[in-house]
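CO-FOLDING WORKSHEET

Operator: S.A.
Ligand of interest: 1,3-dihydroxyacetonephosphate
Run index: 326
Mode: holo prediction, single chain
Checklist:
[x] sequence pasted
[x] SMILES validated
[ ] output reviewed
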Amino acid sequence: MTNDTVVVVGGGAWGTALACVAARAGRRATVLCRDSAVADALSARAENPRYLPGITLADDIGATTDPAVLGAADIVILAIPAQRLRAALPGLAPQIAPGARLINTAKGIELGTGCALSRVIAEICPDHAQAILSGPSFATDVARGKPTAVTLAARGEASALDLCRALSSDSFRAYASADMAGVETGGALKNVYAIAAGVVIGLGFGESAKAALITRAFVELRRLGAAMGGQPETYLGLSGFGDLMLSCSSAQSRNFGYGMALGQGEDVTGRPLAEGVATVRIASRIADESSLSAPILQATKRLIEGEIAPKDAVEALLSRPIKEEF
Ligand SMILES: NC(=O)C1=CN([C@@H]2O[C@H](COP(=O)(O)OP(=O)(O)OC[C@H]3O[C@@H](n4cnc5c(N)ncnc54)[C@H](OP(=O)(O)O)[C@@H]3O)[C@@H](O)[C@H]2O)C=CC1
Ligand SMILES: O=C(CO)COP(=O)(O)O
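OUTPUT RECEIVED:
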């Protein structure tokens, strides 16, 4: 398989960082932006002042707003928000080269339908093989070339390994997996628990409480993920435990930041993208329909919907009946 040319759809923080990843791995990388001002800044100054201000990017990254660039791609990386995929893809799909492989990097579950994003992509691009890249990776770290490791899942070990090789470099290491459902659900659900961890810190409940929350969140995440088709061991890896840990422990995470603001009683309108807000709504419906116990997820949903105050949500979790840990 030829992997020379990578087109990244989405000129935001993650799309820009992933174009740097591809360029560092020796690929010809182009970002397909929606906004010509972002494309111009990337091309002329190797900068993305809107989404990654202050970071000088590799100067061999191309940028355009012309979807025709997809016609020359061997690999198309999708880096636009989860809830935008269904609307964005139909305009792009006819332009994508027939043999190109798609790698989705958005983290979420479709709100209106409960569909995994891989299903949304398969419905709109049925003839293209797809993969999922997910794991503990902040765009700012990755764009700066700081060491990062992620999971890359595809149907078939050979395909996953081939894509891992195509994107890995001395600062970015991708591990192959064949468990697309496990990698996808881990990335989507960790955002919900990052909001919950942010709430705990925003309330001033401290690091011990946060560690307890993360540990119990991990139990829930594995339970929900398994019900959505993931394999248990996948959640122990970078795209599961790794990403949960990162996102629940750093204010760099937009989901954690959203939760912290909620915990501090701030107005969250207009905050940066927090994918967990949509995911918690649909995941709570999925949990209810399958009668799965997910108290942290359900409390987070009630809190986000304004049905319960942050402090009461945490107290409700602590006052549940005493039971065995496992
Ligand atoms: N940032 C990170 O550290 C990481 C992010 N991710 C995931 O990557 C995905 C994207 O996140 P991120 O890049 O950070 O988000 P940003 O908010 O930084 O950027 C979103 C980008 O998507 C573009 N976009 C939105 N809607 C459309 C559309 N309909 N068609 C084309 N482009 C569109 C925006 O364009 P415009 O500027 O024109 O609005 C913007 O360039 C999310 O699912 C996130 O969870 C995964 C790992 C790490
Ligand atoms: O997914 C991420 C890190 O792996 C980015 O997290 P946020 O979307 O919460 O910023």
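REVIEW:
The chain has two domains: 5-178, 188-318.
The longest strand covers residues 148-154.
[x] output reviewed
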